[in-house]
């Protein structure tokens, strides 16, 4: 994120939408599986991505979308808060800020100015598993983002005064998160659910670590992870694949392959007992959040969990809406989510924001009723069919824009998802049965696997608006 005020709404609205609804995609990370020919496009995918591997290890994905008015150029690095060590949490996000502070070729402030002058948009975001940068420009302006991204892959200056300036900005973001009662609850639920794995840490990092991260720390981190063989370039829009490949090779091809040290990320041990965490902060309304350890996309249970999340909160017919809001209401909002798009196993969670006189404990009791129902009774066939339709509709909608398509492909590359999953996406979603829903609910939505978080409103100035609990992406 640059030091100017940048529009981040797409991160709040668009990225979680993809994360929660999209399970499958092509292996775009550099695996040996070949790109399909033009005549073998999988029916669940709008356009066929072409996959190129440069000699220095850079992966290039291109999608020719002749109907798009714009072109998106994205660079995805396979490094995020998951890769951070104790005492240096938040360094991925800190480095993302520093990527906008300038090189000799593009001094501080030049990137935003140049992109703005051609009517484009640029931004970046950090997640648990990746950091991504993008420019959305007119199709004939591709050369500028190529030049920008190739240059800052290796030539970041990291001037000491800029490090301190960005530190102040990051610390302010960190304090805003702490002051937001909902995000504080999410942070504590994750920190309680994950005891060993780095998903324990917030993407933005802990305040003390941000304060003590040095320029040398950032430079070392930058050199260790920002290299062609740890990155994927995604280009989507009206394009000629051969021309894009030539320009990318000219700009990135001379960057040497880096020495990527394989990290040993500690696996989270199984949870066997209920865990609790409590937040007491000024807030408008109480919240109860319940989270359960769940597998990622590699599991045979992932599809059923995706559908289960939709059954819980995909519409006004969903179980949470009917049981928490419509019938004998105790909540003004209740939703569930499961994010399979994580490198390592993550969480299946749901929450309820209560009515003014409702307590978090009452909300938990009512949520437990929903859990028992989903574990013991078959899902209504009409609700199951509706939930599948919503998932597949969202999957198609995620491909409607060049930017959305690029985001989808970039995340696939970051998480190393094989192409074969994509070709079976629609079939596998439709294959989920009511018995599958009940099976995964019985396996994962159990007290020993559960972390419960309570938000108790206290006196004081409450935030003027409610931010929904969810995966925090910076």
Automatic annotation (TrEMBL):
What are the GO MF terms of this UniProt record?
Answer: metal ion binding
Quote the InterPro entries the UniProt record gives. Metalloenz_LuxS/M16, MPP/UQCRC_Complex, Pept_M16_N, Peptidase_M16_C
SUPFAM superfamilies in alphabetical order? LuxS/MPP-like metallohydrolase
Q: Where is the Peptidase M16 N-terminal domain?
A: 61-205
| Peptidase M16 C-terminal domain sequence ranges | 214-390
**What family is it from?**
Belongs to the peptidase M16 family.
PANTHER family per record? METALLOPROTEASE, MITOCHONDRIAL-PROCESSING PEPTIDASE SUBUNIT ALPHA
Name listed for the protein in its UniProt record: Peptidase M16 domain protein
Native source organism of the sequence: Leptospirillum ferrodiazotrophum
Per the UniProt record, the lineage of the source organism begins with: Bacteria, Pseudomonadati, Nitrospirota, Nitrospiria, Nitrospirales
């Amino acid at each position: 994120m640059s030091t100017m005020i940048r529009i981040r709404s797409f991160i709040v609205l668009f990225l979680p939408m993809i994360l929660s609804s999209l399970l499958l995609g092509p292996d775009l990370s550099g695996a040996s599986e070949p790109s399909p020919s033009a005549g073998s496009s999988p029916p669940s995918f709008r356009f066929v991505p072409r996959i190129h591997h440069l000699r220095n290890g850079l992966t290039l994905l291109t999608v020719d979308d002749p109907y798009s008015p714009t072109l998106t150029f994205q660079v995805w690095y396979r490094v995020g808060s998951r890769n951070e060590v104790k005492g240096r949490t938040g360094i991925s996000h800190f480095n993302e800020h520093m990527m906008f502070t300038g090189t000799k070729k593009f001094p501080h402030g030049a990137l935003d100015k140049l992109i703005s002058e051609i009517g484009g948009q640029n931004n970046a975001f950090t997640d648990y598993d990746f950091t991504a940068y993008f420019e959305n420009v007119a199709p004939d302006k591709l050369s500028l983002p190529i030049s920008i991204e190739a240059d800052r892959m290796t030539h970041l200056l990291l001037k000491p005064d800029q490090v301190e300036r960005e530190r102040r900005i990051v610390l302010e973001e960190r304090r805003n998160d702490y002051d937001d009662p909902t995000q504080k609850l999410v942070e504590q639920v994750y920190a309680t659910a994950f005891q060993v794995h780095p998903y324990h840490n917030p993407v933005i990092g802990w305040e003390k670590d941000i304060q003590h991260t040095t320029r040398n720390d950032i430079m070392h981190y930058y050199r260790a992870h920002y290299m062609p063989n740890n990155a994927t370039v995604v280009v989507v829009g009206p394009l000629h694949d051969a021309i894009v490949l030539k320009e990318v090779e000219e700009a990135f091809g001379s960057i040497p392959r880096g020495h990527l040290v394989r990290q040993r990320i500690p696996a989270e041990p199984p949870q066997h007992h209920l865990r609790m965490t409590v937040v007491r902060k000024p807030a408008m309304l109480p919240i109860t959040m319940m989270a359960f350890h769940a597998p990622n996309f590699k599991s045979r249970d992932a599809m059923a969990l995706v559908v289960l999340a939709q059954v819980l909160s995909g519409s006004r017919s969903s179980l949470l809406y009917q049981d928490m809001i419509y019938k004998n209401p105790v909540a003004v909002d209740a939703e569930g989510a499961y994010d399979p798009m994580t490198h390592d196993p993550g969480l299946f969670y749901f929450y309820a924001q209560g009515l003014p006189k409702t307590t978090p404990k009452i909300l938990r009791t009512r949520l437990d009723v929903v859990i028992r129902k989903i574990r013991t009774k078959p899902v209504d066939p009409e609700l199951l069919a509706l939930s599948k339709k919503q998932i597949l509709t969202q999957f198609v909608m995620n491909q409607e824009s060049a930017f959305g398509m690029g985001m989808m492909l970039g995340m696939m590359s970051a998480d190393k998802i094989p192409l074969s999953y994509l070709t079976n996406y629609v079939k596998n979603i439709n294959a989920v049965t009511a018995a599958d829903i009940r099976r995964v609910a019985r396996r994962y939505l159990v007290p020993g696997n559960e972390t419960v978080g309570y938000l108790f409103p206290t006196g004081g100035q409450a935030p003027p608006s409610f931010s929904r609990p969810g995966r925090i992406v910076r």
